[in-house]
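Q: Second attempt. The first request was missing the SMILES, so the protein and pyridoxal-5'-phosphate are both included now.
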Amino acid sequence: MDDLIDLRSDTVTRPTPEMRRAMAEAEVGDDVLGDDPTVNELQEMSASLLGKEAALFVPSGSMGNQVCLGALAPPGSEVLCHDRAHFLHFEGGAAAAHLGLMMRTLPGHGAVISHDQVRAAVRPGSEHTPRTAVVAIENTHNSAGGSVFPLEEARAVAEVCRERGVPVHLDGARLFNAQAATGVPAREWAACADSLSFCFSKGLGAPIGSMVCSTAEIVSDAHRLRKRLGGGMRQAGVIAAAARVALETGVERLVEDHANARRLAEGLADLHPDCVDLAGVETNMVYVDLQPFSKSAVELRDLLREHGVLTLAFPGATSVRLVTHRDVSNEDTERALEVLKRVL
Ligand SMILES: *Cc1c(COP(=O)(O)O)cnc(C)c1O
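A: Got both inputs this time. The predicted holo structure:
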């Protein structure tokens, strides 16, 4: 396993020795009863970092999105979102199954759904239509190549939503990648949103966990929903301790992942200028478009695997996703690029 270069996702990192030590030594209590000091500290730290009143530790980003959407929107109301939003495609239909929410999609441009699109789509309010209860944005945007939702546009969306009285949810699974890519503090995007969730288990490198941040009132509703979904955890300080190390040591390091992704993208662009959108590679993801080559995504994935490089390809896809992370070094990046060039 260890000489494989795993570019499938930034979720594949394993806990560092420092995380394992923190886990072993964590002070814990029953978090369902509110007495896990390590969880409580991480929640306070996160809320303060993102400039929010309160925070709630949840097992996954998917649950983070669900408890926020559920806290903001009653069943039968609609969520306006990007047509490639993560929660629309990759969370098992949770918002429909568990929350009774309707998703109304807007065609995304890169990471963005624009304030003009949002303004045109928010329903004016009538007994005949569903109520537009949430506008959701995603930053960085997974299916849009890990690209950043520009802060100015996020502010404009927030402004339209404020005028119309519709709350904004930010799926910030990789929000700190946006900070690392732009130098804009994560809290600036957080300020555009009523609720947000971010993941410790992506680029930050923790084994488990996400955080929801919002007002005390919304977090209290989210807390009830977490319980309903079975996400109340007992001595969760064991995982919160690793998440804390991830937050303290993982954010600044993300620039290295971004540099490695850029290296991969530039190397591939040398091979064929049409196989990557260089301008779209802003963070730690590279989508390789296979149309210039006579290979399917699954064929390429299998060939790369024979050479020790793991990638993610969905059946029928015309692109392969490469993701850099803490366990991919500069040397690994060069080696992966050599393999890609050879195989393509
Ligand atoms: C990974 C991801 C999630 C969900 O996180 P899980 O912990 O895998 O449930 C949500 N949103 C985005 C944008 C993601 O990339």
